[in-house]
Amino acid sequence: MNMEIVSIEKKTFEMMVAAFGALSEKVAALRRKSDTGRMERWLTGEEVCGQLRISPRTLQTL
User: Fold this and answer.
1) Cα 11 to Cα 46: distance, rounded to the nearest angstrom
2) How far is 34 from 49, CA to CA, in rounded Å?
3) How far apart are CA 1 and CA 23, in angstroms?
4) N or C: which end of the chain has fewer CB within 10 A?
């Protein structure tokens, strides 16, 4: 297994961290909406994209 170092700008990294934090908050909010804390059915990728207002490509990379 080879390890690679990927260098990105600090601002880009901070934006990624903020986006991940926002995603985490949205997931937590969706979870709170459920009465039992468990979803009765799995969401489709399309439904997830709609709920989170993200593209399928963004969902794929998360």
Assistant:
1) 30
2) 19
3) 30
4) N
